[in-house]
Amino acid sequence: METRTFEKVGIITSLLGFGAMRLPLTQDGTIDEPRAEEMMELAIKFGVNYIDTAYPYHEGKSEAFVGRVLKKYPRKTFFLATKLPCWKVNSLSDAKKIFAEQLENLQMEYVDFYLLHAIDGEAYDKMVGLGVVTYLEKLKKEGKIRHIGFSFHGIYEDFERIIQSQCWDFCQIQYNYLDTEDQAGTKGYLLAEKLGIPVIVMEPIKGGSLASLPPDLQHHLNDLDGKATPASFALRWVGSHPYVKVILSGMSTLEQVSDNLRTFSDFKKLTEKEYRALDEIGDIMRGRVGNGCTGCKYCMPCAFGVDIPGNFALWNRYRMFQDYDMVKKEWENATKQDSRPPVCTECGQCVPLCPQNINIPEDLKRMQAELSKAQEESANK
């Protein structure tokens, strides 16, 4: 298993981190614990020692599941990360209550990596003003938190200000070969490297968008290695950045775990030729997608029943592949029509919740127009 060293604190983590955000589900929507446990145990068996969860994942059930699985292992054999949901914190007492609940859920006496979750400039200022950042420093002195950082979704200017405002132990950014100029992007990565702040990467496959490419783009990768998966190329792109210490993968199947383990057990940095190929693919794909939704579900639930991330995943898949047949069955599924864009009332409640700053109501209208037209053209063939 490829590892990276956090030089300042002298710890070594697996480059692959197990993200407990997209665990397999049962038919009723709850975590399929036997399958999820098998996945996590396989990852740990092959050297993954960084496990990432968060307070809201899987409707608040992810932390408890992760804690139950990790109780089987000696505490010093893994690094556990979880996050404070800043949008739920309106007082210092809220932060204290949530942290206590998290320790109870996880059945742990301390957390190795603790993050202010999904902050931008406004959320960060609020946490500072409420005394939350000072409180986390106190928890660190008490040994209940080992390392303090933040996960970031916002504009680069906010990232620049936040990362330089504290002596952070690490930062977590969204980074992949499509998002080089979005959010923190490459400029943010380089700034963190300059400041000596280790980088943990989320969304390396952009919510799964880079796990399957259309034929006109896949051939670029086939020419390089016909046996390698698109996901492995995306992960290697991120891992080829030396100041990236952990790459989080939100795996949903045992097959995804196995593929990722193959990538990181015999990790190879990208060659110049491979870099050029991915840059070309990225340029093409950036010109196709409708928006940058990653399926994080922070906008959910919609009060009127719109499946916002599901709709955008469908729209972006259609745009990237430019093939209506790939989405026809799902788009025309009669049982899903009450969650489609026309149900949106344009109330706007979802907009400030989106870490990608997407104008959700407007994009839902654009999606409806494009797919309705594609549906009509398909029916007239």
Give a description of the structure.
This protein is α/β, with parallel strands linked by helices and 381 residues long. It folds into two domains: 3-271, NADP-dependent oxidoreductase domain (TIM Barrel, Alpha-Beta Barrel); 308-379, no CATH class. It has 15 helices and ten strands. The protein has helices spanning 33-45, 57-60, 62-70, 92-106, 121-129, 132-141, 156-163, 185-195, 215-222, 230-239, 254-265, 272-286, 308-321, 328-331, 360-379; strands at residues 3-6, 11-14, 16-19, 50-52, 79-84, 111-119, 145-152, 170-174, 199-202, 244-249. An eight-stranded parallel beta barrel has the order 3-4-5-6-7-8-9-10, surrounded by six helices. Strand 7 (145-152), helix 7 (156-163) and strand 8 form a beta-alpha-beta unit. Helix 1 packs parallel to helix 11, helix 3 packs across helix 4 and helix 7 packs parallel to helix 8 (185-195). The radius of gyration is 21 Å and the shape is globular. 41% of the residues are buried. The model has no long low-confidence stretch (mean pLDDT 91).
Which fold name corresponds to the CATH topology of the largest domain? TIM Barrel
State the shape: globular
Instruction: Label the CATH architecture of the largest domain.
Output: Alpha-Beta Barrel
Number of domains: 2
Please identify the structural class as seen in this structure: alpha/beta
CATH class of the largest domain: Alpha Beta
Give the amount of beta strand, in percent: 5-15%
What can be said about the biggest beta sheet?
A: 8 strands, parallel, barrel
Average residue-wise pLDDT: 91
